[in-house]
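Protein Record: Sequence and Backbone Structure Tokens
======================================================

Structure line: whole-number tokens from a learned vocabulary of local backbone shapes, matched to residues.

Purpose: to set a sequence beside its fold so the mapping can be learned.

___
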Amino acid sequence: MTVTRGAWSLLVGMTLLWLGVAWDGQWHVDVGPDTFFTAPHLMFYAGSGLIGLTSLAVVLTTTRRPQTPADGTVRIAAFRAPVAFLVSGLGAAGHLVYGATDLWWHTVYGFDILELTPSHIGLQLAMQTEAAGVVLAFLALRTQPAGRWGLAGAGALFMASAEISFDGEVLGIPVSMLGVGGATAWVIGIVVGADLTWRWLAATGAAFLVLLGATMVFPPFATRIYADAINLRLRDNAVNESIVGTAMPYLLPVILAIAAGAVWMARRRNLTPRQAMLLVGAVAAPAVAVQSALFGRSADGTPLLPLLLTVAAGAGLCWFGWQNAALLRAPQLEAAR
């Protein structure tokens, strides 16, 4: 399998994984506890399985090719793997391991009552790793118009999955603020560092809008249909709206458009990449975090310390994303041929 086909296969798998996870969350809220072998579980495990098999196929194809100088691969024993597919493959492997742990959890304890079981935390982190691999895979295809749209879609999935992957609190600090803010800053750095124009930040926001629409519509619809099919009733207090969709940072497209304008202005003023990325990340990350905290996860306001940490994390991760794109740019282009 070529890198180009592999990247699009990863995107399909990540979309299945995301919608399956959103459906699973909806099922818990509108119907109740579940077992391991439910349709939402099978959907997101199918998406993760597609990511894993695609990564393996690309690694095997790359290993069989004659080696070229600076081909952007990592050698592991007798295998050579493109960096992006190594990341996505490791995420899928983690998903498989924690999926087995989830099956054991259900076997021992039965139904899930809470979302944050040990196996679920592992699954969430594995999902975020898979999403990062999809972004890196499309970074190699950014010279192609379709590849640029793929990068926009992959970035939208990465930012959306951060809302689930980084949930809860650690030492009283809302991790969701740091997670979704930092994820947004990293994607901005990737898109700008890939030497695309500011318009592609706006395009990433448009892709996020499409993903938000699918997340708002699919989980409640699928939950009602599936519950009727297996003769289960919705709860009397069922919300009948997407629990994951309503928690997503729906002002993100506007924030990305503003970030696009800031990048355009920074280039007009000839700011260095370091200056531009630190500034854009320091503004975009807390803006997303505040919107997420006020209208998504929490209605208790935004504490000062988490906000300051988000500013610092956003600045650093935006610069880190720019560096990722710069480091991967030349070897990944060669690997994509």
Summary: The CA atoms of residues 6 and 160 lie 22 Å apart.
